Amino acid sequence: MEITTYLKTLEREGGLLADLAERAGTDAAVATCPGWRVADLLRHTGAVHRWAAGYVGEARLEPVPLPDAPELAGAELIGWFRDGHAALVRTLTGAPADVQCWTFLPTAAPSPLAFWARRQAHETTVHRMDAESALGLAFSAVEPEFAEDGVAEALL
């Protein structure tokens, strides 16, 4: 799949995740993540988005720990998530194709930029589904090619 396809998917899925979180409320239980509330889902995904953007945006060559997420709730937490998601999309979209940075699955993509675009598109899609579970909704479909790509990534 093309990087641009991953970026479009990432942008759409992150927006859906935030919209679903608003509908469910940050105190709602996440059925697919026992013990988690929507707030935990947003903190986790928002921290991962910032972590990934840091590798690409700063061309980090060494691993760093996942950043701590703030103890926000409600609209403030959803805003924090949306800001980080938008920053990730901007960072990946604006990065040079030949950016060099650390990845944790070096064989999962032909370049670090392709890796982070792919990984974050899949990560965000899975967590969008988690947000759907907080509302008791059936999982929304994903494109078959994208679903196949997620399986291929997991089997590397």
Write the layout of secondary structure elements.
Elements (H helix, E strand, L loop, with lengths): L2 H22 L13 H20 L16 H21 L17 H23 L9 H11 L2
Would you kindly provide a brief summary of this structure?
By secondary structure, the protein is mainly α. The protein contains five helices and no strands. It is globular, with a radius of gyration of 15 Å.
Compressed to H and E, one letter per element, the order equals HHHHH
Low-confidence stretches: none
The number of strands is 0
Can you tell me the CATH class?
Mainly Alpha
As a percent range, the share of strand residues is under 5%
Word description of this protein:
The protein is mostly helical and 156 residues long. It has one domain (3-154): Four Helix Bundle (Hemerythrin (Met), subunit A) (Up-down Bundle). Helix content is 62%, strand content 0%. It is built from five helices and no strands. The protein has helices spanning 3-24, 38-57, 74-94, 112-134, 144-154. α1 runs antiparallel to α3 and α1 runs parallel beside α4 (112-134). The relative contact order is 0.21. The mean pLDDT is 96.
